[in-house]
Amino acid sequence: MQLIDETGTTHADDTYAMPSNERLVAAYRALVNGRRLNDQCSALVRQGRLAVYPSSHGQEACQVAASLVLSENDWLFPTYRDTVAIVNRGVTPEEALVLLRGDWHSGYDPKHTRVAPQATPLATQLLHAVGLAHAATLRGEDTVVMALCGDGATSEGDFHEALNFAAVFMVPVVFFVQNNEFAISVPLAKQTHAPSLAHKAIGYGMPGQRVDGNDVAAVMAVLDEAVERARGGGGPSLVEAHTYRMQAHTNADDDTRYRERDEVKAWVERDPLTRMRAYLSAAGAWSAEDDSALAAEAETMASALRDALNREVEVDPEDLFRYVYASRPAHLDRQWNKLKDELERTAAFEATGAAGGGTTESGTKEQKS
Ligand SMILES: Cc1ncc(C[n+]2csc(CCOP(=O)(O)OP(=O)(O)O)c2C)c(N)n1
Questions:
Q1: What is the spatial distance between Cα 84 and Cα 31, in angstroms, rounded to a whole number?
Q2: Atom 13 of ligand 1, residue of closest alpha carbon
Q3: Is the pTM of this model over 0.85?
Q4: Of all protein residues, whose CA lies closest to atom 18 belonging to ligand 1?
Q5: Please, which pLDDT band fits residue 356 given cuts at 50, 70 and 90?
């Protein structure tokens, strides 16, 4: 399904109506801010200020649509790549990056923001999303849950368990798969033999729709319908957005080893920002002055984020182990003791190294671990 193509030309659809210009202007602002956030975070990784950043550069239309179609009381269950969606839901960039900086499990209160912590294990969040949506129904609330995952995550058992449970119990959840064609270096053809990921809905007895993931209007229209159905008691849906990961999986990945540069280049023409800008401008809903104001807004956000991440924070490493369970089990004790030992030995090494001797109190050479 597509409503606006690469050139900004519209394609009417019998089922899905074009969102209002007012909503599309809001979406475009979020696209531009989201792109700036992605690029700022990638720069912060290179400066050693962030441990890792899985960028959604090129996938911003999915991120923006997933957050804009939800009401205030709905929940979002994101993955590690969904920082732009989280920020667009009201979490500040600084809070969103605490996990990726390696400081803490999550930098925001999920109950306050109605955004679950970002999940790094693939597809586990889908089961949590279904559990929350089911609980909300049992309590008589009209909450809808948007559960995000990638194409690679659809090969995990948790994905299938989540879809099956959701369909059997008619749970108000929208499974939104961002198919960016790769699970790190593994292409989609090695993940599934199905004609599309949307086809997987059929086997579970729920509606499935494939949409152009770089067309924010189309993604919003399809997700709107799925959210409305869920809220009305019509159960879950599966939406597959076809998009492309424009950059490497993370800074630890060399994507030149598994894909051709021409392929990546071809997707530049399908950029979600360009086509929405072209559409809004032709509709008289966007001007060059609006561009300047929005660029200034994005720069202010990026500059505030740089300042926040340039501040050194004092973290207590034991906190990472302290609050996972009410009382800490033996395996976490072992992990903490191992880390504590390493920290103590590193501190001793640095202290003796700084004194110029490079030896420990007992006179033996300290080993760097
Ligand atoms: C359960 C599990 N298995 C393996 C991994 C290692 N891993 C991290 S990211 C990734 C690829 C995920 O690809 P996809 O679901 O398409 O999401 P994308 O990164 O493309 O957004 C893998 C296999 C993991 N994090 N969790």
A1: 9
A2: 183
A3: yes
A4: 150
A5: low
